[in-house]
């Protein structure tokens, strides 16, 4: 291997301990010359000294913004490798303009989100929240009233990395799910290759028992599920959101759920966190979780392992598997 690249870690200490536990950190130390300073504020003199020789910046949650100011202090920087999902919030376009490679561990984060979504799809298909509420009141559903998942129509909004993973799992499931897809960037041929039927968003809402959201948070996707589209969903349908809260009109959804017309499984909300006094916290047909669909606990080291493998590829002058290109920014989460 060529000379080890100079690497600076840029994330919070508590995140570093989770993402790069001792075995992964030891592996990283064999691949790169890791600076001892952990950078969270790029404006300090100590950070400037570390950045001056940095060829790789390995970032995580709590990293400083990588803008023109930081790049002026890091003239040798060749790669930003992010040990988490989206880079949109800390990597500025100037990074690509300077020809610096950018990588994200979003692939590693996708698996847990797909697992979480599939779990909620099954719960939603069985109308689990309503059954649980009845059970708390001492009422047992009769067998004719009980719902199963077989044949449920699932509408997937967005053929993103996670959306495609959900589609693959739905089609492989024994339940015989019928899968619809709405995505303006997908062609009919692409949809056929995925094994789904491509429809527009209104048709998807009207035809689905369950709608699961996997689109990016962009100005044009804000309130993608607004009051009108939520009104197209059939009574008893469920909305699952593990993407971004802004894609769903929170107040419109709250009204539909309060009326008992829709169920909701929300791992993300708008705003986030949702105020404790919000009505969604009190509805029996709503499950709220605190943005836990992605890597959690011991799973977080998957992100570190992915990032360390990217450092190795960079050191070997190989293509980065998690490469993020400037043109991707308008379409990624």
From TrEMBL:
Record Gene3D superfamilies: NAD(P)-binding Rossmann-like Domain
Any GO molecular function: glyoxylate reductase (NADPH) activity
SUPFAM superfamilies: Formate/glycerate dehydrogenase catalytic domain-like (SSF52283), NAD(P)-binding Rossmann-fold domains (SSF51735)
CDD domains noted in UniProt: 2-Hacid_dh_8
Keywords: NAD, Oxidoreductase
Keyword Oxidoreductase belongs to the record: yes
Protein name: Phosphoglycerate dehydrogenase
Organism, as annotated: Actinacidiphila paucisporea
